[in-house]
Amino acid sequence: MKNIHYYFPLIHLVLCFLSASLAISTTNITTDQSALLALRAQISADSNEILAKNWSSNCSVCDWIGVTCNSRPRRVIALDISNMGLSGLIPPQIGNLTSLVLLNMSKNNFYGELPSEFAQLRGLQVLDLFKNNFSGDIPPWIGLFHELQYLDLSTNGFTGIIPPFFSNLSNLGLFAVEYNSLHGNIPQEIFNISSLVTISFVGNSLSGGLPDYMCNNLPRLNWLTLSLNKLNGSIPSSINQCSQLQVLSLSDNQFTGLIPKEIGNLKALVKLNLGRNSLEGKILILKTFNSHQLLKCCSN
Predict the structure, then answer these.
(1) Which intervals hold domain Leucine-rich repeat-containing N-terminal plant-type (predicted)?
(2) Are 184 and 206 in contact (CB under 8 A)?
């Protein structure tokens, strides 16, 4: 019999789904305003006093700085409070903004774990939390965001593994988790998201190898940066199947073996960084690269 802990992630997702379904039927523009006022109440630092002065119940929530509403039904569909010098926790009421399509909190000092009520934001297309101080695991309920196109969790304090929630994220174009404290293998499901344009996992402690088929289902990928991790094994020769690659950075890992000659077939490539591994061989270049940059990046 399988250990019951095996089923915990699935149970958690089901509960989040049910919670989100109930919330959608009861929320409105008044609920949205209350959710944002709850967020304002959790702000411990507002260096420019934008929220303190502008977010007031005396005027329509749709007129608040950083807030965008649609017309029918009247709901908050975008919240962009990036680079406002804000600090504080994220309250659970944020999950009541169930019509959100865009949530950008980047370049602030928000901290703590993401509340589970975030799972109710199932219409999100953009989730940008870049450069804050969020901590804890990357929550598996992100897998509920079927419409998600842009996910940036970089430069935070996330720990644990990258959860394998990607089978439902068929619209994802950007996935970045640079400079966190993540470990474990890269989930194989990532390499089956054909919509991906950017994968950026620089500056973690990810380990394990890259699958031989890694580029077979990534026809749009143009940015792959995995530097400053603990990845090992060989670089797959199928790398040339990522034919749109412009940036390939695998430096500062533990890769071994020969540099695949197929890298020379990447005609769109403009930046290559393989340094500080244990690789051997040369690349036959089949197009005109920026040669001084290429040679510098390939050297150990």
Answers:
(1) 31-70
(2) yes
> What stretches of 212-282 show up as alpha helix (H) in DSSP?
none
Tell me whether residue 193 is exposed, middle or buried, using C-beta atoms within 10 angstroms of its C-beta: 0 to 12, 13 to 18, 19 or more: buried
The answer to whether residues 161 and 136 touch, using CB atoms and an 8 Å cutoff, is no
What is the C-alpha separation between 216 and 260, in angstroms, rounded? Answer: 16
Q: What is the DSSP letter of 241?
A: G
123: which 2 tokens?
């219409």
Residue 205's nearest CA partner among 244, 159, 272, 136 is 159
Q: What is the pLDDT of residues 266-295, one digit of tens each?
A: 999 999 999 999 999 887 554 444 444 453
Rounded-to-integer distance, Cα 241 and Cα 9, Å: 33
CA–CA separation, 172 and 299 (whole Å): 33
Residue 175: which of 229, 105, 244, 126 has the closest Cα? 126
Q: Which domains does the chain have, with CATH numbers?
A: 4-298 (3.80.10.10)
